[in-house]
Amino acid sequence: MILHHLRLLQDYILSQATGSAQPHVYPSDIKILNYVIPLNHLIEQFGKIVLPMNDKISNNLKENQELSTLRDWLLPMLMNGQVTVGAVEEQLGMVAESGEEYKK
User: Fold this and answer.
1) pLDDT tens digits for range 72-103
2) CA atoms of 78 and 96, how far apart (whole Å)
3) What pTM did the predictor assign?
């Protein structure tokens, strides 16, 4: 929750940075901010809603990476005629049906 609050205040915090060569945000700049800390039951309700979504996002990112890797491996072979779409669909279908993980 505090992270979300700080993200909302990010522009303000960065505008408070001082220094000519390399601007810094000092602890005193953060201490003057007001934080809203919700009741525990609200935090728990928030977690019940947000955590499954975060898990889904994480799983989607992992799946996207795996699909990108598969595409990068498969596309050159398709372009060179080493493999056809029908053959690939058949092999991937067999992998999916057997529950095995596809590997290069």
Assistant:
1) 988 898 888 887 877 767 766 655 555 555 55
2) 20
3) 0.51
Quick one: tokens of 95? 């992998």
Alpha carbon separation from 28 to 4, 7, 9, 22, 32 (Å, rounded):
20, 18, 15, 17, 7
31: amino acid identity, one letter: K
CB 74 within 8 A of CB 81: no
Residue type, 48: K
Dihedral of alpha carbons 44, 49, 52, 57, sign: negative
Q: How far apart are CA 93 and CA 89, in angstroms?
A: 6
Dihedral sign for Cα 15, 16, 21, 24, please: negative
